[in-house]
Write a structure and sequence with these properties.
alpha/beta
Length: about 290
């Protein structure tokens, strides 16, 4: 059995689409959908799908890791798919994820995030470049070389082998991937299982989101001090500083690419300057990004 877990907060406008994208897929196995949300608006939408084996899970609203831990206890499936209430998946997502996850020795599989933002704006262009080059190409290259990759929380399939994860984890997807890998499992990539994501449309939200995700990777050294991280400032320089220069199609995109270098430098500066993960509370770092809704 497959348990699909959707975490959401004030996403009554998008959670229905997220649910229906799974309900409309052809799946050989039985599956259930659990939706964790703390607000009444989203819960009302979720309850309207109750006849389709969709269940609302009570979420105290204290962060995604806590919501996931509650769902893990509720899950009946031996395989779990994780996603969010403000994204939607391709109509072949479950099939493609299961092709990889059902292989012997594979413990987790990540889908491929695809930006739905317009490439005609600078931040929209950033989202396409970073998902196509920073995420997709890097994961594909690493998997082909037999190297470790981190799954994306936008679409993350795993065998039901985790009891819980740290409640203060900023990059819960990265923490779960490392935990599964340390149990001896391989991590797979299913690029045909796509998840469509709206990324920030203003610079303030862009910094908030990237600080949370990239800064969360910096937090991993607390949990896995002996492990090499897939993302860091120095890895960006060593492995990918030249990649963005191959992506532009127009002179305007060349200029935006140069701006991206400056923005990433500023981002990492803010991460090391502003985020003291050992002293700041989870609630102070995890800030909701409104422009992605």
């Amino acid at each position: 059995m497959i348990t699909i877990i959707i975490t959401a907060y004030k996403e009554e406008k998008t959670v229905g689409r997220a649910i229906e994208c799974f309900l409309n897929q052809k799946v050989d196995e039985d599956f259930e959908i659990l939706v964790a949300c703390p607000d009444e608006g989203t819960k009302k939408v979720v309850d309207s799908y109750s006849k389709y084996n969709v269940r609302h899970v009570e979420d105290p609203g204290k962060g995604k890791p806590i919501a996931l831990n509650i769902c893990f206890k509720e899950a009946r499936g031996d395989k779990i798919i994780l996603t969010d209430g403000d994204v939607h998946v391709s109509n072949n997502a479950i099939e493609e994820l299961m092709k990889k996850l059902n292989k012997k020795g594979v413990g987790a599989v990540t889908g491929r995030p695809v930006s739905i933002n317009s490439r005609a704006s600078m931040l929209g262009y950033f989202s396409h470049l970073l998902t196509d080059l920073g995420a997709h190409d890097t994961r594909r290259k690493y998997v082909n070389k037999g190297k470790f990759i981190v799954c994306s929380g936008y679409l993350f399939a795993m065998k039901n082998v985790l009891d819980s994860l740290p409640e203060d984890a900023l990059s819960d997807d990265a923490v779960m991937t490392h935990m599964i890998h340390e149990k001896g499992y391989k991590i797979g990539y299913a690029p045909e299982a796509k998840v469509y994501v709206k990324y920030p449309t203003n610079f303030k939200d862009w910094i908030i989101q990237k600080k949370r995700s990239a800064g969360g990777y910096n937090q991993l050294k607390q949990y896995f001090p002996q492990r090499k991280r897939m993302r860091s400032f120095w890895k960006e320089i060593a492995e990918g500083w030249y990649k963005p220069l191959t992506y532009p199609r127009t002179p305007k995109e060349v200029i935006w690419t140069l701006w991206l270098y400056m923005c990433r430098l500023y981002l990492w500066f803010k991460i090391y300057q502003d985020i003291n993960l050992k002293q700041k509370k989870f609630e102070e770092v995890w800030v909701r990004v409104e422009s992605t809704k």
